[in-house]
Amino acid sequence: MRSVAILLLVLLTGCGATVHPTRTASGREGAAISCDGLLSTWKRCENAAAKTCPHGFDVIDRQEKRIYVDTGSFKGRSLVVSCKP
After folding, report:
1. Distance of alpha carbon 31 from alpha carbon 52, whole angstroms
2. Helix (H, G, I), strand (E, B), or coil: what is residue 49?
3. Of 21, 6, 26, which is closest to residue 52 (Cα–Cα)?
4. Which of 15-24, 53-62, 66-75 shows the lowest per-residue confidence on average (mean pLDDT)?
5. Phi, psi (5° rounding) for residue 28?
6. End-to-end CA distance of the chain
7. Residue 13 DSSP code
8. Bridge-partner residues for 23, per DSSP?
9. Cα–Cα distance measured from residue 26 to residue 17, given in angstroms and rounded to the nearest whole number
10. What is the tally of helices (H) and strands (E) in the chain?
């Protein structure tokens, strides 16, 4: 029962944004960012992109999908950005 409560708490709050630095096809630095969790929003992804790319960024790809687990489902969001020089 306790592990279910902990899992539910993690799903509700989300774990923040996960940022994976990358290079785009054009050779610019960029990042693949995922923001999962019931209360997670696109704003969380965009804030992570702004921290990763201090001079601004261009959005290359934006996806949203529903992730199913034993206790329910939540939205998974992913954002791929290219940092401006």
Report:
1. 7
2. helix
3. 21
4. 66-75
5. -75, 155
6. 50
7. H
8. 29
9. 25
10. 2, 4
Confirm if 80 and 49 have CB atoms less than 8 A apart. Answer: no
Using DSSP, state whether 17 is helix, strand or coil: strand
The residue count of the chain comes to 85
List, for residues 60-69, the tens digit of each pLDDT value: 999 988 878 8
What is the pTM for the complete model shown?
A: 0.71
Token pair listed for 10: 């993690």
User: What are the structural domain ranges in the chain?
Assistant: 2-83
For residue 6, give the 3-state DSSP assignment.
Answer: helix
**For residue 14, what are its two tokens?**
């989300």
The count of other CB atoms within 10 Å of the CB of residue 1 is 5
